[in-house]
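Record type: monomer structure entry
Structure origin: computed from sequence
Chain ID: A
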Amino acid sequence: DKHIEGWKKVTDAVHKAGGYMYIQLMHAGRMSHPDNTPHHRQPVAPSAIAPGVEMFTAKGMQDIPVPRELSEEDIQTTIADFRKAAAAAIKAGADGVEIHGANGYLINQFIGENSNTRTDEYGGSIENRTRFAIEVTKAIVEEIGAERTGFRISPGTPLGGIQDGEQGPELYRYLVKELAKLDLAYLHVMHLGNEKLLQDIRSIWTNPLLVNRAGRALEDLSVDIDRGLADLVPVGVWSLANPDLVERLQKGAPLNEADPTTFFGLGSKGYTDYPTMEELESQEG
């Protein structure tokens, strides 16, 4: 309830400024470390397989331990947790939620061939490896409505040690088709270069499509929109470092450089202290 009260202040401010806000729902799964939790618990995942990467902690970078495999009962509890989180986001004033099914986190771990070796209905076939993602989405749609629900995927992205396997493109075509049946608000693709797959996703997905190209140059910002492959282009890091990003883009003004050393900080530094053009001009004056 305290989190809802805190986020209400944020959503109220966003709405007052004429904006909209979707809150991303993310379960880290095995991408966690006991030192990053107040209860020092072992991470959980589809299978008891460590990602083979390090995790940022207060003590510095540490190897991520082997996670505990979720039981089928745990899976149902986690689906209910996603539903509860979606309801809380709407109660906090958000316009909707984005289900994080990408970047090596829990939903992506169920999808990954090397992170999910289950032999029950949540592992093995394409239908089974996508089952958790689809069931989470259906629960959230039932709770808050499809028009308030987005979904993020990252085909072929090796973050968190995830490998899609040879069936990867086929799996994502199947997943997108199933999600399309739910008539979601949007699909958000972190795109790493499989152009044929992106074209297929565009043909399958008729609702708004967000395409985030990793390593995209600023001058290429509108390429996917111009080609008809995307309806919107996410600008995460640029908008973090430039609170007046829209105005800067309109004027062709230089952008502040984001400081990656502050991305996992605990204070305002690197989050709310980047200057606007107006502030920079007043400083120079």
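Annotation 1: The chain has one domain: 22-234.
Annotation 2: The chain is about 40% helix and 15% strand.
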